[in-house]
Amino acid sequence: MKKRGLSLFCAFLAGAMLTMGNGATITMAAENTAETPAVTEETPEASTVPESSEWEIQSNNIAGWPEGPKVSAETAIVMDIDTGEILYAKGIDEKRAPASTTKIMTAMLAIEKVPFDTQITFTDEVNNIEAGSTHIGIKPGETLTMKDCAYAILLASANEVSSGVAEYIGTTVPAFVDMMNQRAKELGCTNTNFVNANGLYDENHYTTARDLAIIARAAFQNETFREIVKTPYYIVPKTNLTDEERWLNNHHKMIFQGPEYYEGCLGGKTGYTEKSGNTLVTYAERDGRKLVCVLLTDISVIAQYTNTALLLDYGFNSFQPLSTAGVTLSPAKSDELGKLLEEKGLLTTALENVSISIPKEVTEELTYKTSVENNMLNIDYYYGEQLLGSSSMQASDEILKTSQELSPEKTEETDASVSPKPNKDTSEKSITLPSWKYIALFLLITGVLFYIILFIVKIKRSIKKRKRKKAKQNRC
User: pLDDT digits over 276-315, tens only?
Assistant: First the structure.
């Protein structure tokens, strides 16, 4: 009994030490509440195959397209970062709650608008977050640099920092949210509406896999953003109100050695709320090709990393750059300009520099369609009927001249079909008569007038006769 009691005491002591170790960093204790659900909640969900695993994969309907893997996330996309080409699509235009992946837009705008050495003093806005949601313990009146804030937003997913920075930039959080929505529209997002800067759940706060990939791709163009999202950890120094350092650990597990590690991962952004489920944005690079993968509404943390690895492998293994494929492009049958430019050898440079991905096993015809607009040569690339991507370059004088050679014919055809111009000669003939016709017309008019005069005279004579006849009758 004594030995058993001693063992229980040692076990209790060890557990207490581990608990103290886990609670030493404020951010780690807070993260488990909002960003990473407890393992006990995930295990039963992960052991079953959800209905969403069987939902339609849109990209599998493209003729000759590599078949993509089934994933449990309700919506998912894989996009080529360099070209914007969509390699995998599952419900990519269905609206879902983005959770903390919202902070990609928040951080992108903040990095663009505020220098890193700017001092930001937080207001009571830091208290306007849900209890238990992810935070780093910022107090009203506390001051951080913009650099500290950017790392807190993207690594530690700090909700109160996101709101505080939004208030600082926009004067009010709603004003900053307006900036977020405006930027989304400028990027071409059509199914996105933000109502806050941190991603805490709201039924009117939504996006789609396609729109979020577009936003993530835009953010990745910023070198500072790229550097932050791949950083394993960051230390916020002591502040005016906190006399200790804050260690911020990157929530994205695919950058760390371990079960979720993915070679070539360049970071990304995690997200979770009870109502939105697990969301994940991941950047990765292999052999010079860069992809972004977005998952919305996945069943668990474990599943989202497994699914992301499957989709990234699919994107890297099933596709290749056109430039290394050893295949040729040809103008579409309807592309008369493209045929003429190809005959004259004016597309060589444009086609050599094209950057699009195609299936490794090419089974459909690769074509392009050209157009010239505002002195720019635009080329759309197709795999069968599927638009892969587009390119645009300044049109040379020779290309502009060739385009103009075709345009007069098209202009005449268009004018003739829309508003035909009257023929000058025909118009003049319609209103100008030969001289002999004037004589005939004069005689005709004279004859008519003569007949009318005779008719009037006859009527007057008839009236006079009637009057005379009545007068005689009266006399009798």
Answer: 999 999 999 999 999 999 999 999 999 999 999 999 999 9
- Evaluate whether 314 touches 68 at the Cβ level (below 8 Å): yes
Q: Tell me which amino acid residue 68 is.
A: G
Q: Are 219 and 225 in contact (CB under 8 A)?
A: yes
In this structure, which amino acid lies at residue 276?
Answer: S
Helix 103-113 vs helix 209-220: crossing angle, to nearest 10: 30
Instruction: Give dist(CA 345, CA 285) in Å, integer.
Output: 34
Lowest mean pLDDT among 34-48, 136-150, 164-178, 193-207: 34-48
Q: What is the pLDDT of residue 464?
A: 74
Q: Is 355 exposed, middle or buried (0-12, 13-18, 19+ CB in 10 A)?
A: middle
Place 33 in a pLDDT band, splitting at 50, 70 and 90. Answer: very low
Contact 85, 355 (CB under 8 A): no
CB contact set of 326 (below 8 Å; sequence gap of 6+): none
Separation CA 105–CA 155 (nearest Å): 14
pLDDT at 165 over 90: yes
- Give the Cα separation of 442 and 106 in Å (integer): 88
| Residue 44 pLDDT exceeds 60 | no
Tokens of 229: 């999202």
Is beta strand 233-236 parallel, antiparallel or unpaired with respect to 330-331? unpaired
What's the mean pLDDT when you consider all of the chain? 84
Length of the chain: 476
pTM as predicted: 0.77
pLDDT of residue 434: 54
Q: Which residues make Cβ contacts (< 8 Å) with residue 269, sequence separation at least 6?
A: 100, 101, 103, 104, 154, 157, 216, 229, 252, 280, 281
CB 205 within 8 A of CB 102: yes
Cα–Cα–Cα angle for 312, 212, 203, rounded to 5 degrees = 125
